From TrEMBL:
Residue ranges annotated for the NmrA-like domain, each copy included: 3-221
Keyword NADP annotated: yes
Designated name of the protein: NmrA-like domain-containing protein
PANTHER family: NITROGEN METABOLITE REPRESSION PROTEIN NMRA FAMILY MEMBER, NMRA-LIKE DOMAIN-CONTAINING PROTEIN
Family: Belongs to the NmrA-type oxidoreductase family.
Annotated InterPro entries: NAD(P)-bd_dom_sf, NmrA-like, NmrA-like_oxidored
Keywords: NADP
A single Gene Ontology CC term: nucleus
Length: 223
């Protein structure tokens, strides 16, 4: 029987590419796509593509326990923007962890979408709050029994941001016809941009050989 792969954020950018790459493997995994709203247009598209939708809210532990029941693999991502603050995001990440602890009999890989800890970089920054929350969650995962099967993945800023929110992130056309990408970094800084599309392929590689990636952190940069 196909092993169960529970994907959080399945209607979003990260989980969306994970489920579509898993689907391409043609039934190798029984994919459960987590959403708060199975009736949304995005959810309906996933169902039409053949995915099993499961309704759960990261703020509701009971719903999460049902969603992950019997899982062999879990891809977990929280959404800082929707959470609205660092405390809520952290609690959501810990709720998913709490739910995952009920699957230890079957769980082979717990993939946590994290970000680098800005507080421990050579030049430390204390207040990159959505990086802090992801790392505080990661620390708790590592301390728990789920830590044995944990793989952390870290994505750079998506190239897709340029298209999704060009007014905020995209290069701006100048009066002389040139394009300038304005970012609050030194002009010589090398930025690790990522195509979020590459995450799906990475996840399929990790679950092909979970033991190889257990307790490891994989950073993703795309060219
Ligand atoms: N943008 C970037 O450049 C970038 C780079 C690296 C990391 N990140 C991180 O990526 C994370 C967001 O991931 P994304 O870009 O995939 O987000 P996204 O495209 O905005 O999608 C958000 C997803 O989260 C789900 N969701 C939100 N609140 C939920 C809740 N309470 N319970 C269950 N599901 C919930 C939504 O599902 P439903 O609405 O269907 O319930 C949706 O699938 C952020 O935390 C951010 O820090 C972003």
């Amino acid at each position: 029987m196909a092993k169960i792969f529970v994907v959080f954020g399945a209607t979003g950018s990260q989980g969306g590419v994970v489920v579509s790459d898993l689907l391409r493997l043609g039934g190798k995994y029984a994919v459960r796509a987590v959403t708060r709203n199975p009736e949304s247009d995005k959810s309906k598209k996933l169902a039409e593509a053949g995915l099993t939708l499961v309704q759960a809210d990261m703020n509701n532990l009971a719903s999460l326990k049902k969603a992950v029941k019997g899982a062999h693999y879990i891809f977990a991502v929280t959404d800082f923007i929707t959470a609205g603050n660092v405390q809520t995001e952290t609690k959501q990440g810990l709720n998913i962890l709490e739910a995952a602890k009920t699957t230890l009999d079957t769980l082979e890989a717990y993939i946590w979408s994290s970000l680098p800890d800005a507080r421990t970089q050579p030049i430390p920054y204390q207040n990159v709050v959505h990086f802090n929350s992801k790392n505080d969650i990661a620390k708790e995962i590592r301390r728990s029994a789920v830590g044995r099967v944990l793989t952390e993945v870290r994505l750079g800023p998506y190239y897709q941001n340029f298209v999704k929110a060009p007014q905020d992130y995209g290069p701006q056309k100048q009066s002389d016809g040139s394009w300038v990408l304005m970012l609050p970094v030194n002009a010589a800084t090398r930025m690790p941009f990522t195509s979020v599309q590459d995450l799906g392929r990475l996840i399929t590689v990790i679950v092909e050989d979970p033991a190889k990636y257990r307790t490891k952190t994989v950073s993703v940069v795309s060219q």
